[in-house]
Amino acid sequence: MARVDGVIILDPVGKSLITSHFSSAYPAIYTDAYNHELRRARKDGRELEPVLWVHGVALCHLERDGLRYLIPLTAEVNPLFAFAWLESFLDTLKEYLGDVTEVTVKDNFDVVYMLIEEMLDEGHPMTMETAMLKDIVLPPSLMRKLLNVAGVSGLQAQTPSAPFTAPIPWRRLGIRHAQNEIFFDVEETLDAVVDRKGHVLSAQVWGRLGCNSRLSGNPDLLLNMSNTKALAECSFHPCIRYSRWERDHVLSFIPPDGKFKLLEYEAASVPKLPFLLKAGMQVDETGGRFSLTLTSRVARLDDVVVSIFLGSTTTGISATPAGDRRPPGQEGDGGHVGGGTAEFDPHTQVLRWSLSSLLQHERSPSLTGSFVS
Predict the structure, then answer these.
(1) What DSSP element (H or E) covers 116?
(2) Domains and CATH numbers, the chain
(3) Could you tell me the pTM of the whole model?
(4) How far apart are CA 171 and CA 83, in angstroms?
(5) pLDDT at 334
């Protein structure tokens, strides 16, 4: 049966914050090997492979918001198993902590450690439902911090076995809400490769249907979709009756309480890209010059961010955004140039061009500049 050998969380400088579930190996072996390979990759100006081999052990790693997560696999296990568990773990951390940063992890060390203990049983995934976990591990709050100061554990002591004795594994008994309501949120991600002229070389659309259920009792829901042929490679929450989906192409389920991911899918067909990006770059021995132009193909796009990696040796940039000036009081960059703002992070060597909105009827915003390396 698939299992992981441990979980390591490193801070931005490579020091261990949390280490858990190691019984036969020294975690420092993997930490030192990862930091060594990361330094070599940065020196060579290349990206680190997602899976490293350390003394015959597969070391899966992921970076998110400055923190690095390591999972070693000594058995013959598909690395996607480790990455799938890690994504679920990070989603749970976000539900508990909000922004998952070095500060929030240190301030809530006990919560993070207990979540790992509950979500892994001797390396095997166990309790993965956030609603069930919140019955076992109390979310961070002022009251919980006061209880910790008083020496009371963060574990829920009133009904420790409730999540495991309920007839429906993902939904506890006796749920009551003043207002019975459920919300659905569709999120789609477009992953595309385009050439310098803006022509699409390859494209994929990945989507997820998130839910926030606030229904009392054990509601049995039926969700119909107008065009199920648009969904391919679906991944369902365990609450969905798969046989009903196969027969009638409808989603029949008793939802968990609170927020959860009901469905993930890949779009069967990829629509036209919502914007066109034309880029140009010239590189020489001391740096280079770049130019970017964005054109919207829809009426309006909000919160557009373009990120460019300028190379590990880049020390500084000079960038000038340009676009239509909007009148004061108009939604967006009121009274400012519609070209947005440009910021350069010297630690990651990434240039971020941010626009609050991109309007089809306006002149296409552009960003031109140079960098020094």
Answers:
(1) helix 109-119
(2) 7-165 (3.30.450.60), 181-267 (2.60.40.1170), 275-372 (2.60.40.1170)
(3) 0.70
(4) 26
(5) 44
